[in-house]
Amino acid sequence: MSGPTIHPSELAFFSMLASCGALSAAARKLGITTPAVSKRLAQMEARLGVTLVTRTTRRMHLTPEGELYLLYARRILAEIDDMEQSLAGSHAAPRGLLRVNATPGFGRRYVAPVISRFMRKYPEIEIQLQLSVDPPAFSEDAFDVGIRFGEPPEARIIARRLTANRRLLCASPGYLAQHGAPGMPADLAKHNCIGMQQGDEGYGVWRLTTGAGTSRKTETVRIHGTLRTNDGEAAVNWALDGHGILMRAEWDISRFLSSGRLVQVLKDYQTPDADIYAIYPQGRQHSARVRAFVEFMADSFDP
């Protein structure tokens, strides 16, 4: 018994339809009538034997089957683009869909502006920027390039270091005037520390290192405080308001350190590395648009 027939042209049609978000918008983009778009979609659904989209007067929503169809459609279209560009050689301009994932704060402040400049250079590429507090795993095939803090532990993932990035301990001048500055890691137990959840790291544990080589020593400090969050912007605002000591990435607080609104503490101690990487699976290493974007990101961070 044969399964439903998938027509290659319908993959691009459905991907475009999902991007438009409405049958009327898709009709305008295709230069046809809305009933014609609806009819083509209905023919697809009849052939597949499933409902892909639920329609309302103004909007459309993908069913679970529609989400699955879209996932495979975009993956297949991306592989076709990669094949065509590989056959065309290095002279072909990168094109097709590129899905980029980053954390919300860094994504808004740094990645989105780079994407804006990238699109002027490569107008044939379509980019979807996904901002996630907890990024999805590569096994879910939810994105093509991820911007991450720290080198990934998996060997099957290719990582391109974009720039150095330190985590620093800081507090507002007002907080330090009232409570004093810690002189050593153990002093943090007497302070109100703002808890930040970083990826898989839980609240409440900071690791501080001094020295180098054989004299290198790392202390694990269990912190306490009245404020905890997984949102970096909220944590920085609490530190600015004088609520406690915060460990935060340099990219997020450098402007406040420069202006004096925050002051670095325990300067002689280093925290775990948080260098910024562009990561992508080995299966994407031959993709022209992935290579172009990663190179563009690296050049953007080049001092």
Task: Name the descriptors.
single chain, 303 residues, alpha/beta, Arc Repressor Mutant, subunit A, D-Maltodextrin-Binding Protein, domain 2, 3 domains, 5-stranded mixed β-sheet, 9 helices, 14 strands, elongated, transcription, transcription regulation, WH_DNA-bd_sf, LysR family transcriptional regulator
How would you describe this protein?
The chain is α/β, with parallel strands linked by helices and 303 residues long. It has three domains: 8-71, Winged helix-like DNA-binding domain superfamily/Winged helix DNA-binding domain (Arc Repressor Mutant, subunit A, Orthogonal Bundle), CATH 1.10.10; 93-164 and 275-301, Periplasmic binding protein-like II (D-Maltodextrin-Binding Protein, domain 2, 3-Layer(aba) Sandwich), CATH 3.40.190.10; 167-264, D-Maltodextrin-Binding Protein, domain 2. 39% of the residues lie in helices and 22% in strands. It is built from nine helices and 14 strands. The chain is elongated.
- CATH-defined fold name of the largest domain: D-Maltodextrin-Binding Protein, domain 2
- Domain count: the total is 3
Number of helices: 9
What is the highest CATH level, the class of the largest domain? Alpha Beta
Going by helix content, strand content and strand pairing, the class is alpha/beta
Q: What is the succession of H and E elements?
A: HHHEEHEHEEEEHEEEEHEHEEH
The fraction of residues assigned to DSSP E strands is 15-25%
Using only C-alpha atoms, the radius of gyration works out to 24 Å
The average pLDDT score comes to 84
DSSP strand tally:
14
Strand arrangement, largest sheet?
4-3-5-14-6
From the N-terminal CA to the C-terminal CA, the straight-line distance is 61 Å
Q: Say which CATH homologous superfamily of the largest domain is assigned.
A: Periplasmic binding protein-like II
Name of the CATH architecture of the largest domain:
3-Layer(aba) Sandwich
Biggest β-sheet strands, sense, barrel: 5 strands, mixed
Low-confidence stretches: none
What is the helix fraction of residues, given as a range? 25-40%
Family: Belongs to the LysR transcriptional regulatory family.
GO biological process, one term: DNA-templated transcription
Protein name: LysR family transcriptional regulator
GO molecular function: DNA-binding transcription factor activity; sequence-specific DNA binding
